[in-house]
Design brief:
Nuclear Transport Factor 2, Chain: A; 5 helices; 7 strands; globular
Length: 240
């Protein structure tokens, strides 16, 4: 995040796997080919195949973003006892084209959306120890998420506005592991000073659009937890 004179909206991840915060780790933009190769390498970790992953990632651009936005709320048949996550009235997470028609893929995407909501909820609550984080993250991804939330809170910021998530691509590796690539549009989301409630708006640029790559593993409750997560700002797959 930039300094108060030129604040930037906090995002879930702004760097490679080392950290979530721009304020702690310098980002290293990758060429498109290298980014897609890194995506495939992450998603296929511990998996036996996935030759079509890079092809799927190439198809992200140009998808219709006008579809009806979907909610991340659990289905009635969901057996997991999930923590309560309620975003404040001034913050919305909108998920476009978040249904595929495939039961497993839709379950994966639903938990990605819940994880996004949980992270933004933790930021607005100013609490990096919220149970919702450990419910939807595990391993190094959980530690990184907590560090990221804590860094934003320490800098005196919260978030407000609308985050739009779109163009999801799911690859189910087996019964307990999957990979997801998706985009975020932060052009209508802003940093908000926690004390004064002042909203800091900045110009929309290519860096307002973020490409995310996630690996998920299914736990004993049937929850698809994010175990690895990377991001790249300004990737051409996500920019208009």
């Amino acid at each position: 995040m930039a300094k108060p004179s030129a604040p930037r909206i906090p995002s879930l991840l702004l760097t490679e796997p080392m950290s979530h915060g721009e304020s702690t780790v310098k980002r290293r933009p990758l060429p498109v080919a290298a980014a897609l190769a890194a995506t495939a390498a992450l998603l296929l970790t511990a998996c036996g195949s996935g030759d079509d992953s890079s092809k799927d990632n190439d198809k992200i651009a140009g998808a219709d973003t006008g579809d009806t936005e979907t909610s991340a709320s659990p289905d009635a048949t969901d057996a997991a006892s999930r923590p309560r996550v309620t975003l404040p009235d001034d913050l919305s997470d909108n998920f476009e084209s978040w249904k595929t028609g495939d039961t497993t893929q839709d379950a994966v995407l639903a938990d990605v959306a819940r994880r996004v909501d949980a992270t933004n909820y933790a930021i607005t609550e100013g609490n990096a120890k919220l149970p919702a984080l450990s419910f939807y993250y595990s391993g190094t991804a959980l530690a990184d998420a907590r560090d990221w939330v804590e860094s934003i809170v320490k800098e005196g910021y919260s978030i407000t506005g609308t985050n739009r998530y779109y163009n999801p691509k799911v690859d189910v590796f087996d019964s307990s592991s999957a990979g997801v690539v998706y985009c975020e549009d932060q052009s209508k989301a802003y940093a908000k000073d926690r004390k004064s409630n002042k909203v800091h708006k900045t110009a929309v640029t290519s860096n307002s659009y973020v490409l995310y790559t996630a690996r998920l593993e299914k736990d004993k409750q049937g929850v698809w937890q994010t175990t690895k997560l990377t991001s790249q700002r300004g990737h051409k797959s996500c920019t208009p």
